[in-house]
């Protein structure tokens, strides 16, 4: 089956530093990737949608200068949390939609970010 | 707009009990409907889906039927196991290449 990986699986950083999270589709090409944030015991909040080769579309309330998304290839998207603060601590999940699929998404295992 | 409402948990059941997790939706057009499952410490996995009215999705003993007349997609399983303990998310995607819209999730705990 289709596999999506995320790296790192967890990261702890100091306040003010930047953290990059990678999302890779391992065995398929993903024209669209999505980034979600999940708070404890809550649902997934869509942060942004990224299409390969174009700028990401951010959801209302998500700061695009703070959460930089790059979708450089059909198998890789990155999320960089810039100048992280404790309130950015969360579980970040990516998903990838295969080329030619209208309603299928495969999810990565998530990245736990803790900002001290 | 598009939204998904699912019953709040947590739900605690004994092993072999019958499970129902209610899910209703609001959407324009004809959405595809999904149930995702998140096991402890893991990412979301697609459990089942249905793409048109009266379709029944099924997987691992779980079933859900796309009911357009009641705008519902309730998840059922006849006999739950401890290994089914997880958080279950109902979701939809409107027609076309649009992001998933998730419900808030329902935590299920099955005790032996």
Keywords:
heterodimer; A: 116 residues; mainly beta; seven-stranded mixed beta sheet; four-stranded antiparallel beta sheet; B: 112 residues; 0% helix; globular
Write up what this structure looks like.
The complex is a heterodimer of chains A (116) and B (112). Chain A is mainly β and 116 residues long. In chain A, 0% of the residues lie in helices and 54% in strands. Chain A has strands spanning 4-7, 10-13, 19-25, 30-38, 44-51, 57-58, 67-73, 76-81, 90-98, 106-107, 111-115. In chain A, a hairpin with a 2-residue loop joins strand 7 (67-73) and strand 8 (76-81). The radius of gyration of chain A is 13 Å and the shape is globular. The mean pLDDT of chain A is 91. Chain B is mostly beta strands and 112 residues long. Helices cover 0% and strands 50% of the residues of chain B. Chain B has no helices and twelve strands. In chain B, the strands form three sheets. In chain B, strands 2, 5, 6, 10, 11 and 12 form a six-stranded mixed β-sheet that branches. A four-stranded antiparallel β-sheet of chain B has the order 3-9-8-7, with no helix packed on it. In chain B, strands 1-4 form a two-stranded antiparallel ribbon. In chain B, strand 10 and strand 11 form a beta hairpin. The model of chain B has no long low-confidence stretch (mean pLDDT 93). The interface between A and B is medium-sized, with 22 and 21 residues.
Which helices and strands, and how do they pair?
The complex is a heterodimer of chains A (116) and B (112).
Chain A: E1 4-7, E2 10-13, E3 19-25, E4 30-38, E5 44-51, E6 57-58, E7 67-73, E8 76-81, E9 90-98, E10 106-107, E11 111-115
Parallel strand pairs in A: 2-11
Antiparallel strand pairs in A: 1-3, 3-8, 4-5, 4-9, 5-6, 7-8, 9-10, 9-11
Chain B: E1 3-6, E2 11-14, E3 19-21, E4 23-26, E5 32-38, E6 44-50, E7 56-59, E8 62-65, E9 75-77, E10 86-93, E11 101-102, E12 106-111
């Amino acid at each position: 089956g289709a596999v999506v990986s995320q790296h790192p699986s967890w990261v702890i950083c100091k306040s003010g530093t930047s953290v990059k999270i990678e999302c890779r589709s391992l065995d398929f090409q993903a024209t669209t990737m999505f980034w979600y944030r999940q708070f404890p015991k809550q649902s997934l909040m869509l942060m942004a949608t990224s299409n390969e080769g174009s700028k990401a579309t951010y959801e209302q309330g998500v700061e695009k200068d703070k959460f930089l998304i790059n979708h450089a290839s059909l198998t890789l998207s990155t999320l960089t949390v810039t100048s992280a603060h404790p309130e950015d601590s969360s579980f970040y999940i990516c998903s990838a939609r295969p080329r030619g699929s209208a309603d299928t998404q495969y999810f990565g295992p998530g990245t736990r970010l803790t900002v001290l | 707009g598009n939204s998904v409402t699912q019953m709040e948990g947590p739900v605690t059941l004994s092993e072999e009990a019958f499970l129902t997790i209610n899910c209703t939706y609001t959407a324009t057009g004809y959405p595809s409907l999904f149930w995702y499952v998140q096991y402890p410490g893991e990412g979301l996995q697609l459990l089942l889906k249905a793409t048109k009215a009266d379709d029944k999705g099924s997987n691992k003993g779980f079933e859900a039927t796309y009911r357009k007349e009641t705008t519902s997609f309730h998840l059922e399983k006849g006999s739950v196991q401890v290994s089914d303990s997880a958080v279950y998310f109902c979701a939809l995607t409107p027609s076309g290449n649009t992001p998933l819209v998730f419900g808030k999730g329902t935590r299920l705990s099955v005790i032996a």
